[in-house]
Amino acid sequence: MRLPGFVDDARADPCSELIRDGEAEGEGSSWRSRRRYKFSSSSSSLLEFQLNSLSNPSTFRKISYKVLSQNGRGIRQIRIRGGYAFPLVNLVAAIAHQTGDDGFVLSMQVLDFFGVDSTKGLSDSQVDHHSRLYGRNGTPFWKLVLKQFDDLLVKILIVAAIVSFVLALANGETGLTAFLEPFVILLILAANAAVGVITETNAEKALEELRAYQANIATVLRNGCFSILPATELVPGDIVEVAVGCKIPADLRMIEMSSNELRVDQAILTGESCSVEKDVDCPLTTNAVYQDKKNILFSGTDVVAGRGRAVVVGVGSNTAMGSIHDSMLHTDDEATPLKKKLDEFGSFLAKVIAGICVLVWVVNIGHFSDPSHGGFFKGAIHYFKIAVALAVAAIPEGLPAVVTTCLALGTKKMARLNAIVRSLPSVETLGCTTVICSDKTGTLTTNMMSVSKICVVQSTDHGPVINEFSVSGTTYAPEGTVFDNNGQQLDFPAQSPCLHHLAMCSSLCNDSILQYNPDKDSYEKIGESTEVALRVLAEKVGLPGFDSMPSALNMLSKHERAAYCNHYWENQFKKVYVLEFTRDRKMMSVLCSHKQMDVMFSKGAPESIIARCTKLLCNSDGSVVPLTAASRAELESRFHSFGDETLRCLALAFKTVPHGQQTISYDNENDLTFIGLVGMLDPPRKEVRDAMLACMTAGIRVIVVTGDNKSTAESICRKIGAFDNLVDFSGLSYTASEFERLPAVQQNLALRRMTLFSRVEPSHKRMLVEALQNQNEVVAMTGDGVNDAPALKKADIGIAMGSGTAVAKSASDMVLADDNFASIVAAVAEGRAIYNNTKQFIRYMISSNIGEVVCIFVAAVLGIPDTLAPVQLLWVNLVTDGLPATAIGFNKQDSDVMKAKPRKVGEAVVTGWLFFRYLVIGVYVGLATVAGFIWWFVYSEGGPKLTYSELMNFETCALRETSYPCSIFEDRHPSTVAMTVLVVVEMFNALNNLSENQSLLVITPRSNLWLVGSIILTMVLHMLILYVHPLAVLFSVTPLSWAEWTAVLYLSFPVIIIDEVLKFLSRNTGLRFRFRLRKTDLLPKDRRDK
């Protein structure tokens, strides 16, 4: 958060000598800073300030500003270099903004800067003035237009459509067939865009959904009276009162505490598991991260305990949440690896198409003046149309739509794996992911504090005997069991005296609420997460005296089950008085009345509770015995061991007080009876460890990213196997500040080994993603909070949790519906398989288009009539090519797809030997098509049986005597035979693409029935245009005889034999690229051979 700057009195002249030894005075305002500033100006309109610490006067830092406007009295507006403009700026505020030391400004200084009285608030005139100066508390939301047509291949198609349209107009053509070609092209492009729009969700929706994290109202002090106002009407300088359950309406600076403590849950911003205690005092260090700014309440966070007053210091975009908006706003979407390769292919294709078109046109310049064309200009137009037809043949019109459709089908496969893909290109990006930056809280852990250990004193007969219990369950669901030291499950935990009292104290000394949310089908908390963990513990322990308790509880509805045991204790004991938690006592107590007995229950830090205890409860028989020095030492040892395991430890105790007592005081908090210790943590998800190992096997590195402190994060990493069995984490674990202090060279080295990045802010996460991308890593970022949104958007693929915030989901490319980190592994495997299939159908379409280009080119060089009409080429490209290509996307994934390293981002779709293979296939396809055309004229019983010379001189037919009518060259039979040969040979070629190198005898058509079905459907559609008269007229075709169909099959089948030979060479020679599939060195040595 950055202070927006403070307004000093308008009559104060910042250019005068106001700053002397850390003290500045101006008319109407005065302040004393904890920093010393030196001021100088020059004719260059640059102001320079030197900043040094009072504790170290020799340390100076220069900050430059530029004068934007000034008048006779001095500077009115300055701009920090690379920062914001500050109207009538006060130097302290500007420097605080530049250095991040806004928390260092004392509360009274803030009030003086804004000219506000903490007991009266702003006046109406001040509100108007501040509103004009700083703006209202609104966040600017905007949407991007989805650019479905921003693709090179699509642009080439648009140009082709325009050229075809212009040529039709130039020739004076009329009717449907004249404009069919450009119309069909544009129709397909519109359909492709529609698929993309329907399937993808606009990622910029995140900016709108951030409104869910803004408070709607605020309790504001103005003109000496409190009133409830819309949060959007807040302005800097407003005095706001906050209390339990309140959502912070803007960035606030604490000025007054109305309770012993004030705690805020800021997990959505920082990712911290526990709530944070706030205070009026300044932080101990400068340039503090959000987590350390104890006197700042951040917009969108929730107050979970206490009450206080604060002054607004940041509104709208100038808040911590606003910085997330700005970060997302300035994040450009990166092209996916496949998109880059398709763009490269489109660029290459454009050059090839242009070259071939020019070549064909130039080769035929000598024929421009042939009499059959009616003049040189018309001859040039004729051959230009042939060149355009060649371009239509070369362009894979169906490729954009097929790629989009195949990726969309891939999203359905992933949805069955609980991976909901929001951005289609991200499907194939998964296949080359090399690093997963995973948010710890809520992703690797449940983000639900849970009691995992309980420590009680079993007996003291022969010295203290400590009994430890473990508790299962990692969520707020009141489901779990208690196990003893030997791992044996306790059927009725409440029958144990200490566990009975522990459940009672956990339930009554508690201000939180556990409830069931039917909309989300999950249990949720209201209040402090540690207190809710105690309520859940009380439910797991159960009630005493009920042998059938487990079965009885199972009969309850989820709503009733949420707090059944807690309600029992609350009905048995009536709360009379509460002593809230304070930092000096580190405990809280509650006085409860029960029939003829009153009891005070206490919980708090172990060192504070144990110091006040004189007795303890024995678990063996429920007796109360004196707390000896030996027992005290043993308990202290146990809670220190809990701390070593990074468990948050609390001690619980009770005390019987005289019946009828209505209040208690701090003096009553002594002579307590110790019950036990509880250790809790935000537990890791049970499936994460196996998922981490699977990522290592797949050559994917996982970096844990968290806002928690280093020791807690390292403990979680040990539990999930991120560090394996290593003891020394040097070079693997860094805090954000430690990483930033490293020289650039060492930062690059650290990024290659880093496993844990702790104590981070949202900007650090985005910085990490950028740094990894600069090292050519393909980065996936997982997260669930608002704080993750900028990094999710910046990453190559952002993965949000299903239970995460709407902001995180909207900024992501993929959402894990089951919040299961392990689902990422399955999604990566599917992504790799989809990419492999995508390569197969791209190669299939390329070979088909090569065939069409060869067909047109050979026909032009030989001088025979047009083999195929443009509309026929469109039909082949869009329908007969598109359906099998899409079906190829259903090829099964290889069994070892997750044992290979991630493919390189620069890996070409088609290169080397593979390109040669498909060039050979394409050349045969083209020659077979031309051969079918020539066969009808020369050999067919239904044809004219011309000689080759007569066929190649068809243009001079009208100028010489012939035994056949010249109209024979307009017969639809030869082009129909050629088109059918092209269709059938491509159907056989589709079968070739069931596998890159395996024979059809090994990978049979039965392995992909979708492909078989698409071939059958394609042939049915082709039959329709041949034998349904209106369609036959539209596509300039005619029905074929059996003899003609036989010729088609003879010319088409050899493509199977040719590809089988090429596959055999690939399998048995060194011509093909061989990729060794092996486990990566990321695996520990002791596991590499297992």
Automatic annotation (TrEMBL):
SUPFAM superfamilies: Calcium ATPase, transduction domain A, Calcium ATPase, transmembrane domain M, HAD-like, Metal cation-transporting ATPase, ATP-binding domain N. The keyword Transmembrane helix applies. It is a multi-pass membrane protein. Gene3D superfamilies: Calcium-transporting ATPase, cytoplasmic domain N, Calcium-transporting ATPase, cytoplasmic transduction domain A, Calcium-transporting ATPase, transmembrane domain, HAD superfamily/HAD-like. The chain crosses the membrane at residues 152-170, 176-198, 348-366, 386-409, 841-864, 915-938, 1009-1028, 1048-1066. It catalyses: Ca(2+)(in) + ATP + H2O = Ca(2+)(out) + ADP + phosphate + H(+). InterPro entries: ATPase_P-typ_cation-transptr_C, ATPase_P-typ_cation-transptr_N, ATPase_P-typ_cyto_dom_N, ATPase_P-typ_P_site, ATPase_P-typ_TM_dom_sf, ATPase_P-typ_transduc_dom_A_sf, ATPase_P-type_domA, HAD-like_sf. It comes from the Eukaryota. It is found in: Membrane. This is Calcium-transporting ATPase. It comes from Brassica napus.
